[in-house]
Design brief:
By secondary structure, this protein is mainly alpha-helical. About 60% of the residues lie in helices and about 0% in strands. The longest helix has 20 residues, at about 45-65. The protein is globular and about 70 Å long.
Length: about 260
């Protein structure tokens, strides 16, 4: 007869994937609760905006040069970014009308299911001629998005519409070039850029440099490379390499 005290315990059920996210919501709730954290109580969407930007850049720093950071750095930085999303959603529960993290998740789910019919549609096998063709997937995404805008009564007037004004210029150019190419009108965009580069004050703002950069953006976009990411990554890794090199004996200190 076996001894119940020494019998192995039955296999425990594996943890539910995503279960830690529920605990993260509880942590955010406790911080914002009346007897929680006083600093947390004072925050609004506006006051949190700078932290969202800072945390996003810290995530990018790890992605751009992972060798310069310790193991687990990306997980840690993404956790900080998740905190901002949970925080905004918790603040929104006190608004009129209120919304919460489940509304954010539902919005994400609905958008992904609409824009990826080759995965979630009723007839996924018929959505694309070649499900491995990334260009077809991108074109499908834009087609569904355009249909959404049309049904909502919205219409994009130009290739720059809807691009946040605060994002870097290379990234703005990449988005505009991608839209123009998707519309089959890239030459029209480049002709407009040529006209702008021929302005009377062109020399005052380096029009020739700007136009050359746009050509690089066009080349990068044709390869599905993001020029902003490429340059940012190169600079981050260059900085790391220089930091690893000991200064030479005849290297003069910088005046500034």
């Amino acid at each position: 007869m076996s001894d119940p005290q020494h019998d192995p315990e039955p296999d425990a059920a594996p943890p539910v994937r995503g279960g830690a996210l529920l605990r993260a919501v509880e942590v955010m709730e406790a911080l914002r609760a009346p007897h929680g954290d006083a600093w947390t109580h004072r925050q609004t969407h506006a006051s949190l905006a700078r932290y969202l930007l800072e945390e996003s850049h810290e995530v990018l720093e790890v992605i751009d040069d992972p060798a310069a950071h310790g193991p687990g750095a990306l997980t840690d930085e993404l956790g900080d970014l998740l905190f901002q999303i949970l925080f905004h959603a918790r603040v929104a529960e006190e608004e009129d009308p209120p919304w919460d993290i489940d509304d954010v998740a539902r919005s994400f789910i609905a958008k992904m299911e609409r824009r990826n019919p080759h995965v979630f549609g009723e007839r996924p096998d018929d959505a694309l001629e070649d499900p491995d063709d990334v260009e077809q997937i991108i074109a499908q995404w834009h087609a569904v998005k355009a249909a959404e805008q049309a049904s909502a009564g919205a219409r994009r007037k130009g290739w720059f519409d809807g691009i946040p004004a605060g994002i870097p210029a290379l990234q703005t150019a990449a988005k505009a070039v991608h839209r123009a190419r998707s519309d089959g009108r890239l030459e029209e965009l480049l002709e407009a850029a040529d006209d702008a580069a021929r302005a009377e004050d062109a020399q005052d703002w380096g029009a020739d440099v700007g136009r050359a950069l746009l050509d690089l953006v066009v080349a990068a976009e044709s390869r599905d490379d993001d020029p902003e990411t490429a340059l940012r990554t190169l600079l981050a890794r260059t900085r790391s390499r220089l930091a690893e090199q000991p200064p030479s004996a005849d290297q003069a200190p910088s005046e500034r």
